UniProtKB/TrEMBL annotation:
It comes from Phrynocephalus forsythii. It is found in: Membrane. The chain crosses the membrane at residues 66-86, 98-123, 135-156. GO terms for molecular function: structural constituent of eye lens. This is Lens fiber membrane intrinsic protein.
Length: 172
């Protein structure tokens, strides 16, 4: 149980770091604009090395930002629940709650990235001939996988044996 919880926390912390980096950086998409390599993130776009905030507030930007922020906050809450489950007498309940919170965080990130993907492919894909998703976007997908893994580890730990001694008695 403790190994699963530890693995879950390792995945959760790694996923949280990647979620924060993905949400904060400006490399979700790269494209050519007026012959210059340009990039954009959730908050700014950069052309020729000069970055500016997005001036158009489109619903998909706000939706993606909101889901990514909710994902970061939920992931942080899941990590706190996971940490408290190590010292709590209600270890299984706290671990299960941590797992469910982390799965919710993964769902929020998945929704945010999916909205961004849909709009980018259908709008920007037609607008720019030469474009691609970039490393911030990829980090977001890796964070989703890590956060799902963390949630599954915590839920498996909660549904496992109450203590390592019980497992030794049952197998021996």
């Amino acid at each position: 149980m403790l190994k699963l919880m530890g693995g879950g926390l390792l995945c959760a912390v790694s996923g949280l770091v990647l979620l924060i980096v993905a949400t904060a950086t400006d490399f979700w998409m790269q494209y050519r604009f007026s012959g210059q390599l340009s990039n954009q993130g959730l908050w700014r776009f950069c052309v020729g090395g000069k970055c500016r905030p997005h001036t158009l507030t489109l619903a998909f930007w706000d939706t993606t930002r909101a889901f990514m922020i909710l994902s970061v906050l939920s992931s942080f809450a899941g990590i706190l629940l996971g940490l408290t489950s190590f010292s709590s007498s209600a270890r299984a309940a706290r671990s299960r709650s941590a797992g469910m919170t982390l799965l919710l965080a993964a769902l929020f990130a998945l929704l945010g990235i999916s909205v961004y993907t849909g709009v980018t492919v259908h709008f920007y894909g037609k607008r720019y001939a030469e474009w691609r998703f970039s490393w911030s976007y990829i980090l977001g997908w890796i964070a989703v996988i890590l956060t799902i893994s963390a949630g599954v580890f915590h839920i498996c730990a909660a549904s496992g044996n109450a203590s390592p001694e019980d497992a030794d008695v049952a197998s021996g």
